Amino acid sequence: MGIKPGEYFLQGNEACTEASIVAGLKFFAGYPITPSTEIAEGLASKLPQTDGEFIQMEDEIACVSAIVGASWGGAKSMTATSGPGFSLMQETIGYAAMTETPIVIVNVMRGGPSTGQPTRASQGDVMATKYGSHGDYQVIAFAPASVQEMFDLTVKAFNYSEKYRVPTFVLSDAEIGHMRGLLTVPKDIKIVDRKEKGVRRADEAYDVPDDLVPPFPTFGMGHKATVTGITHTPKARIEPEDQKVHQELVTRLNNKITANRRDINKWEVVGPDSKTMIVSYGSASFGGREVAARDDRVGLLRLKSIWPLPVEPIREAAEKCEQLLVCEMNLGQLFLEIKRVALEAGCKRVELLAKIGGAPPTPGEIRHKLREMGVI
Amino acid sequence: MELFDFYDQDRWPHVFCPGCGNGTVMNCFFRAFNEIGWKLDNTVFVSGIGCSSRIPLYINSDAIHTTHGRAIAVATGLKLSRPELDVVVFTGDGDLGAIGGNHFINGCRRNVDLDVICINNNIYGMTGGQASITTPHDFMSSTTPFGNKEYPFDLAEIAVAAGANYVARWTTKHVHELTKSMKASLAKKGFNFVEVVSQCPTNFGRRNKMADATALLDWFKKSSVRRDKARAAAIDHVDLNLAGQITTGEFVCRDRECYHERKGGKPHGDGH
User: What CATH number is given to the structural domain containing A274?
Assistant: First the structure.
């Protein structure tokens, strides 16, 4: 069910809505917040018509809690929010990581901290996505940069969330969410479902071994599953004071994502042999794309996924080029991560173009920065 | 089903202190569950954090022990994704009325088919006896060393006002009435709420000259006043001041349509 193959002219948030239904969404819990509200509005009407359930909850804590509950019922589940709502969700994001609950959270980022700029784009939640909840955990996060990618990467977010049993994020922003553009819906869209306990299939979810990603014991199937955020053994026995159980559990939860980085990460390179590489993602990459297309001295590494950190493409770019320029719509959040990897790879110079306030860096601003660096 | 089949014995010993009221509530619940003929394979138990929230972990069925205060929100998502499953929430006064207060009132209002059992022991037991939203005025706790300055919530009265389909309150001294109310709650569609005032000798009684479980039970017996379906009459007694009285009874039993059973109907303003 869902949108038919063909060409459409849609808003980014609408593309996300359509993609979620194609990916198999069956439960959405939402709370109104600019600039993500169109996703909830779209699903309020579409989900009941596709055998799914939409609910508006009392706050974002309730939204993320409800999708965790629905996911244990076996439904592919999603919520959509922006900065302030995202902050409220953090405790249960950690719970979903600890209990290996597949959920998708779309964060249409706006300027923060606090209420900040409700209608303006930002990439201020990049670190909060990975480090917002307490304890050591890993998540998967995609960063779309067009209406088309809002569709494609939302489908991927569901697929990877199901495959690895992990909270997965679509880190969009007000720019992408509210932009209208061309969407081509292909004929064959790959959909991955979680591996359910007691059901053996021959598909992608089984690429990962059971001891890294255990089969999912859906409720109501006689599994007598116990789900808890307390440190627990593989048989769900709670052992909050056992050092070895805790170490094994938390290490595995982290390893299942970091060890499969190559499977998860997506990126695009323009001008791979350029002396200067711009590294960017999401709407911050618009300017870099223009500059790289018109100047042979400058290339672009655009990250389509940012968590787990795409170490391989950053390292490869850093090994080949003379300097990196990171463009972000925050004061330098992914910059330090990229710089760490680039310096380790032998790159001598990593600079930052940080722009906040709501608009992506323009090609002119990027050229100005490159001139300051003396590279064009 | 035998009592011992109801529990997952691999998980014993349990964490409850000697004299705790949780065992009484669990056994009353088992009786109600068994008599009504519900099946463990078709039931999911949901809880938050706290002593009462450990109960689902000991039951031989699917169980989800969630974050503090969020049991009703999680249960809502679960029930809506799998309406054929029976969903029961075990919670406590802190989990339900303090950190989860918003989910509680909106759960009552929304009227999804859930059975919520709140074990109200008037204290944060698991963390060592801090004042809760139901600690009576002037009572002692580790965070009210000069007596509680605040006044307690009446959880049952909140549930009635917020729109729950079924609301009853008993104490652990009223095992027969409690079992009957649990049965009525399970049999009924919609959001049903049973509050059980329970003893915590370790962390509540000890600081309030009732260190012994039987002293607390005697006190419950002495203070309880039954006021079935007498909401108006109960308004004088909404302050659950245990020094005064505990209003018990079946406060409301009504049939508002469940959230997920709405049969279409005509939307307000249709045809605009």
Answer: 3.40.50.920
